[in-house]
């Protein structure tokens, strides 16, 4: 069984990009892998300095995963900061991370371009992410395409450590599903919390309809042919509609007759139906926060056990045991 691991930041409402980019793959792997899923609150500190928002975001992210079907008895599910070993490993790894490796990271440059303060934590974000992955000896890491470079950093650091100190870490592989690598947002850019262009997974019916109606489309008249490959509405429909429905929609695009308003209504109905029962489950879970805390505490205990074995080995390899 492969050891599969991935994490998500509790920095805002989870959206369908997160769902198709990472959460769905993780939930699908539940029965066939040694699965590790966690909520990366230490990473979220690089952009959220509001105590209530972070707390609420963490519990909500936990409720999201469980509502969507993650079974905490079939995986290890925890909150990153509950395993402080990750911070020690981050420091150890950072002493062999070349500055140039971090300076090349697009994500850092994108974030400062979006006015996220350029803190040391934001710069060294990929080292903490490498520690997340290496601490649990993960073999496969399912992520969206935007995280590919961070995975390369984790691989580079693992290889560097193994070469310098002897075989210690598994070198992880990214798993990026081509069909959902980049889910477009309302404006056609990558859907992202930080672009304000998301469709949250668990939006109530009324606001969901409003958001979907606001998807940006071009001004081609209904009867004229349109290019499905450049249309964000088409890409979103493809995630939810059956192959038969998509065949019909494809015909309307290429031959003329695709009315964006009607297609948006179809998309609204599909998304609403897709997440309906999970939405109700999430409400129940958020009414029972003690249960959520219990699940996370149990997960942290299991994660910590695994983490301490790797940390002990890495400490020994580096000469921190005397
Ligand atoms: P955001 O960009 O909204 O802050 P995160 O950085 O928290 O999202 O991403 C969490 C996971 O969801 C990562 O694996 C990321 O690659 C994936 N993901 C985020 N947005 C998208 C998207 N638009 N398409 C595909 N995957 C995505
Ligand atoms: N950086 C990832 C993101 O923003 C989240 C993350 C942190 C992660 N640690 C991880 C993903 C370890 C996979 C494995 O999406």
Residues in helix, % = 55-70%
- Structural class call reads mainly alpha
CATH superfamily of the largest domain: HUPs
Count of DSSP-assigned helices: 13
How many domains, in number, for the residues?
Answer: 2
CATH topology type of the largest domain: Rossmann fold
- Give the strand tally: 5
Show unreliable segments.
Answer: none
Overall radius of gyration: 21 Å
Question: How much of the residues is beta strand, in percent?
Answer: 5-15%
CATH class of the largest domain: Alpha Beta
In the sheet with the most strands, the strands line up as 1-2-3
CATH architecture of the largest domain: 3-Layer(aba) Sandwich
CA-based shape: globular
Ligands (ions, cofactors included): adenosine-5'-diphosphate, tryptophan
Q: Main beta sheet: strand number and arrangement? A: 3 strands, parallel
């Amino acid at each position: 069984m492969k050891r599969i691991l991935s994490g998500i930041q509790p920095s805002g409402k989870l959206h369908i990009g997160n769902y198709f980019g990472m959460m769905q793959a993780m939930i699908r792997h539940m029965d066939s892998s040694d699965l590790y899923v966690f909520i990366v609150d230490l990473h979220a500190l690089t952009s959220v300095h509001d105590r209530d928002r972070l707390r609420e975001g963490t519990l909500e992210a936990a409720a999201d995963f469980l509502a969507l079907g993650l079974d905490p008895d079939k995986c290890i599910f925890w909150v990153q900061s509950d395993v402080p070993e990750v911070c020690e490993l981050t420091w150890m790894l950072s002493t062999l991370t070349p500055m140039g490796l971090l300076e090349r990271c697009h994500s850092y440059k994108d974030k400062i371009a979006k006015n996220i303060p350029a803190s040391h934590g934001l710069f060294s974000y990929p080292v903490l992410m490498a520690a997340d992955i290496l601490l649990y000896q993960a073999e496969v890491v399912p992520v969206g395409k935007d995280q590919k470079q961070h995975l390369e950093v984790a691989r580079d650091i693992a290889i560097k450590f193994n070469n310098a100190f002897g075989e210690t870490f598994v070198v992880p592989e990214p798993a990026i599903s081509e069909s959902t690598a980049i889910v477009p947002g309302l404006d056609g850019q990558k859907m992202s919390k930080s672009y304000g262009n998301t469709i949250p997974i668990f939006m109530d019916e009324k606001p969901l309809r409003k958001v979907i109606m606001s998807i940006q489309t071009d001004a081609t008249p209904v009867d004229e042919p349109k290019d499905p490959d450049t249309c964000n509405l088409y890409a979103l429909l493809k995630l939810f509609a059956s192959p038969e429905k998509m065949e019909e929609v494809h015909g309307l695009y290429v031959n003329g007759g695709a009315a964006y308003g009607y297609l948006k209504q179809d998309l609204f109905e599909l998304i609403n139906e897709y997440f309906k029962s999970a939405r109700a489950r999430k409400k129940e879970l958020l009414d029972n926060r003690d249960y959520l805390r219990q699940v996370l505490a149990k997960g942290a205990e299991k994660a910590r056990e695994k983490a301490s074995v790797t940390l002990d080995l890495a400490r020994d390899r580096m000469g921190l045991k005397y």
